[in-house]
Amino acid sequence: MQALARVHLIQQDIIRDQIREFLLDREARGLSPHTITWYDQQLGHLRAFLLGQGISSVEEVTPAILRAFLRDFAQSHNPGGTHGAYRAAHAFFTWWSQEYETPNPIARVAAPKVAERVLDPVNPDHLKAMLATCERRTLIGERDKALMLFMLDSGCRRAELLALNIRDVDLRTGTVMVMHGKGDKPRMTFVGPKTLKALVAYLRHRPEAADSDPLWLDERGHRLSATALRAILVRRAKLAGVPAPTPHQFRRAFALAALRNGCDLISLQRLMGHSDLSVLRCYLAQTEADLSAAHRRASPVDALLDGRR
Questions:
Q1: Structural domain that includes position 40
Q2: So what's the pLDDT on residue 4?
Q3: How many domains are there within the chain?
Q4: Does residue 212 have a pLDDT over 70?
């Protein structure tokens, strides 16, 4: 029994060390701690499955084993979660095969299908009602108004929004320098004149603020936290009598509005800081459905044969 336990421990150490080597590579590439943790968790599921199958090293993994893992994983996770496990495994085995010039077992494993999501943006009428609750000429009211407009206009992620300092926004041109984007990749996005006007009105209540100070402060003068941001949205929604939106619904609304107004996918990818186009295709599919509905309403043939002009 002790000998079997020692063999099992050796197996654990081999697989764990191989995964750790991959995680160190991701860290060296500048991926965020959040992304590293995600990879660690996802590959932990894979490691547990492999150990249960008596697999002692990555080199012993076959396409059949990986398909079995995904089938097993899907029994207790939704399609989106299963697709996440596949993406993590794909990144790991692709890196390993390139690093050590070995066959890639996941190359012949098809990605799990994920049903196309219906993206739920912030409701425009609800947002107008929330904006109407913001008290004029008060620090909190002007902050909340500027904050909601900024979220909608910039398309920033929640963490990016909260990490902004005053100097990151050019109050003349509307250029926003996102210095701490996903993967710590800086990028530019923009806000329009109405958002800038609201932002200037908010900053007038902070005459002593330095360029290096946080852009968004809570009531105690500290950098706004994710919890405080959520509380602001809940409070404004309650005052307006509407459901509270999430910060990500503002980002969705930004993406959908950009596509509906003619923004191309590559430009939108750069504005939103996506590393690939796969996420944006969900937005594109939704706008294409809008176009189809618009055509049905405005079909020249239907108008001709129905007697409409």
A1: 2-100
A2: 42
A3: 2
A4: yes
